[in-house]
Amino acid sequence: MNARRAGAVGTVCVLLWALLTVITAPRAHAADALEPAPVDFVILVDESGSLSAQDVAAERAAASVLVLGEVSDKSRAAVVGFGSATGDGRPPVDTVCPLTRVDGSGREQLSACVSGLRRRTDAEGNGTDFPAALAQGLSLLANGDDETPKIVFLLTDGRLDVSDSPAYGADAASRNANAKKRLRTTVAQAAADKVQIWPLGFGSGIDKAQLETLASGGYQSRCANLPSARPTAQVTSGSSDVAQVLLAAFAGARCAIATPGQTNPSVSSSADLEVTIPPVATDGSIAVVKENPDAVAVTYYDPRGRKVPLHGRADGSEFDLVGQSGPVEALRIRNPYPGTWRVHVEVLGGAAAQRITASAIWQGVLRSFIVVDPPVPTAGQRVSTRVTLQTRQGVVLTERRQLAGVNVSVKLTGDGFGARKLRLRDDGKGADTTAHDGEFSAHVTVPRTATGALLFTGVMTGEGIAGDQRSYATELATAAPPLTGSIVFDDREAHPGGIARGGVELRNNDNTSHRLRLTLTGGSARSALTVTPQRMTVAAGEQVRVPVRLRFGAGADLGAVPGSLTVRDEVSGRVVAQAFVTVRVVPVPSFLDRYGKAIGLVAALLLAVLVVVALRWQDRHRNRDVSDIQLILYKDESEMSRLRAPARAGAEFGFSLRASPGGTQRLLLDDSGKRYRVRRAGDGGLTVRLPAGERIAVPRGQRAVVTDGLSLGFADHRAATRAAGTARSAGSGTGRNRSAGPAGKPRLGGERPRKGTADSATLVTRRPYDDDF
Questions:
Q1: 393 in helix, strand or coil?
Q2: Which entry of 100, 136, 426, 647 is 20 to 30 Å from 2 by CA?
Q3: Band of the pLDDT at 763, cuts 50, 70, 90?
């Protein structure tokens, strides 16, 4: 009993914490348009006769991983199979998927058409015509936007071989030599068209030197010349890891990062695979490769252990799943929660063990902000340049782990001198006042030869990092500025809904007064930050400090505040002073912090009441939990399919009926709006709400009609968990379903119902839907 009370006290503390979290939770807002840059890519897939069935399946999976895992829905993809030409005029290439935009509907189309890849017969031309395949890829990419990166991926299990192709001459002995000449011309055209070539060979008959020539001959410059973004030839020993290697190449080509995740070579019942997404990621996809898609159900959990929806929004992230019924499914995530994601896979219906792989590709699309002090420098003057980075949601990156591998520099261009570039540091030395606070700084000296306009541009580089290049434009001061100033914050911290105070210190060296405007740029909509005053006047010869107030919305995010303040002369338009917002938003002091021991007695009484409520809540929650339910689908007297509820399913889970290729029906987890919904009933049975709104009751040990010829029963493993080893009456669907199998392991889903037991009792008809469920 003491242990139970201690657990209840812990539950109460969690409930109180959750209540405070809800009260102080940030308000949702529409993220701005900072998105991953699109790419156009073509996957050239070798269909030569040397391929095995396993090789063809691996190629299909690899192509699917790329087209489904792409993070931008503005990208376009095509898939081309190739062999060699024949004497009867059959072409060497076959465009199985035309260039298609990789948005929601496009990914579904690409997922379906990839199945058109196959092994060619001798009559169809089963050679390896690289020049024709590459020419087709360039042709598909030719009608795209010149600013969109273009990429060709080449998958092959052999080397160039067109000895059976009359397209390269009548003399079979010279055909390969002629093809190599044409290939050099085609590769040169790829470089001229700014098309990268990423070759991937698998098997033992690969000419790696030839593949390396293809990689180095195409376009090279991408992603600020990061090493991972330079095309390279990859060779793997077999087809089993083609998808993983190709995904890594694709990540480098589109300036992203691929995390290999995990592979389980023999999943027979269920398994958990893990992939990691770092804090800097703003867009990503988790891809799962399955050998038998009809027998696998996949559920995704974020690093906090929360099951995420397959479509829609939750906790600030957006989700979209595609390919669930195919050999590769991919969950695209916008604004993913950082950390280790869990991919739970279940093999259904007693299917054979299979190899399942989970991988992730991600990219951090960041925005930079730059300030220069003094804002209007003179020739030869040393100025301080500072840059901060933030995500599309306005989160300022301040932690060292968030910025690992990120390099920031400033490029200075202008009239009268050549461009200069200097790296900014966040190490607390020189111009940088505080180490590892997310503010990169450096001193830059304006050349003495400068004569006019100046442009300071912040540039960020890093593995998997992409973003804008914010610039600060000004003009060279030819004389002492009439106005000088600085922005100072008196408060370093503020609470949501609170105010931070500071001031603008101004000196007017002119003989006339000046009107100034104070503006805030780069702030987060969620912070609802406003600044006052927005206008101020400084009299001639006056030196003043104008009080400034920053007011935060009640839903302001905790942590660093995005944005910068700028004071600008309304007449000349010149910047007088500029500074980042250096205030941090911290939690409001708790009720206990404010009043301390004075509320001790009241808190104790309240806690006692909450303990009682929590105990009752726990019992009710336990009684309603459906996590131990296993549904069983019957057709007449034959069992068709079984489906176990997700772990920690809570009071309800959803499923759908799906027809297998053989025409049989099976159960599949589903969280869409058209799902069947399952809850426990008070009499120990289940209540199932149909998509049309009506419900059916499934009593314990009996079955209920779902549709013509199909009925639904269930096994309840909860009772077996509570009282293991206790004998159960026939038809209870509990204890015997958790009996030990070989080697003492519990059987997944329990035993099949036996004819004549309560599990095959009278069918229950459906009733109209008449309650809130």
A1: coil
A2: 647
A3: low
- E-assigned strands of 439-528? 439-445, 453-461, 465-467, 471-475, 483-489, 493-494, 499-508, 514-521
Specify which residues 53 forms β-bridges with. none
Which residues make Cβ contacts (< 8 Å) with residue 308, sequence separation at least 6? 300, 301, 302, 314, 317, 319, 331, 333
> Which of 575, 558, 226, 564 is CA-nearest to residue 368?
564
Q: Detail the DSSP E strand segments found in 311-376.
A: 311-314, 317-322, 328-334, 339-347, 354-373
> Average pLDDT, stretch 686-715?
90
Give per-residue burial for 521-551: e unless 16+ CB within 10 Å, then b. Answer: ebbbbbbbbebeeeebebeeeeeeebebebe
- Find out whether 96 and 17 touch, Cβ atoms under 8 Å: no
Q: 3-class DSSP state for residue 220? A: coil
Q: Strand runs (DSSP E) across 530-664, as ranges?
A: 530-532, 535-538, 543-551, 559-560, 564-569, 575-580, 584-585, 629-635, 638-644, 653-659
pLDDT at position 81 is 93
Single-letter residue type at 179? A
Q: Is 701 in contact with 737 (CB distance < 8 Å)?
A: no
Q: In which element (H, E) is residue 561 found?
A: none
Q: Is the dihedral of CA 80, 85, 86, 90 positive or negative?
A: positive
0.90 cut: is pTM over it? no
Q: Is 444 or 466 the better-scoring residue by pLDDT?
A: 444
pLDDT digits (tens, 9 = 90+) for 523-534: 666 667 888 999
Least confident of 77-81, 277-281, 730-734: 730-734
Cβ(711)–Cβ(634) below 8 Å: yes
Retrieve residue 536's tokens: 């101020």
CA triplet 249, 254, 256: central angle to 5 degrees? 80
β-strand pairing of 471-475 with 453-461: antiparallel
Question: Residue 669 and residue 651: Cα distance in Å, rounded?
Answer: 15
Q: Of the candidates 241, 150, 253, 247, which has an alpha carbon nearest to the alpha carbon of residue 198?
A: 253
The most confident of 268-282, 477-491, 555-569, by mean pLDDT: 268-282
620-655: burial string, b at 16+ Cβ within 10 Å, e else:
eeeeebbebbbbbbbeeeeebbbbbbbeebeebbbb
Quote the CA–CA distance of 172 and 304 in Å, as a whole number.
Answer: 63
Cα gap 642→750, rounded to integer Å: 10
Q: To which residue do tokens 């580089």 refer?
A: 461
Element (H, E) at 191: helix 172-192
Q: Which of 30, 602, 565 is nearest to 318 (CA)?
A: 30
607, amino acid identity? L
Cβ-Cβ contacts under 8 Å for 556 (sequence gap 6 or more): 26, 496, 497, 526, 527, 528, 529, 585
Residue 402 pLDDT > 80: no
